[in-house]
What does this fold into?
Amino acid sequence: MKPQRFRNRTDAGRRLAEKLAAYADRPDVLVLGLPRGGVPVAFEVARALGAPLDVFLVRKLGVPGHDELAMGAVATGGLRVLNDEIVRGLGIPEHEIDAVVARELQELSRRERLYRGELPPRDVGGRTVILVDDGLATGATMRAAVKALSRQQPARIVVAVPTGSPDTCEALEAEADDVICAMTPEPFFAVGQWYDDFTQTTDDEVRDLLARRG
It folds into this structure.
């Protein structure tokens, strides 16, 4: 039977929440959405589970002169994750890495202020954290988020998405404690093909949803 597409991210969040029922009404659970598209999904998940909501920002670190190639990422809390293979292979000097990190941390801070104002990030230490995005294609952003988050010592990291590439969802199982991909259709070409409405989420929408968070 062909998988049923999601109407939009709200519908996707509600359907994903059904797969996460085991985490409902638990005081240790925290839901983190990856901006921007993951936040409307995460909002519905948090509401259904009775859990607080926050954002977890990840910024790709592009190789100098080849920005599309990622040499790592920075995330909420100033954590940086480097791909040593790429850094060593291309012989990227430390000062160039530092310059890219500084620039992306500045953008990350700007977005954090934009999204949550003066509210500090929620403490994840010792908690069960559900990381939510609107889908997984290559999984590079989610992988970076899991690595960065793990350094803040949560008790458990759960990756949860409405749809994803079967291979990517399987690969993430080696990095997260639990991976919930509500739908893993084959062939999988792009996340957007499994949504009727995949309009880009705006900064204002993210801010509004966080203002209504639990």
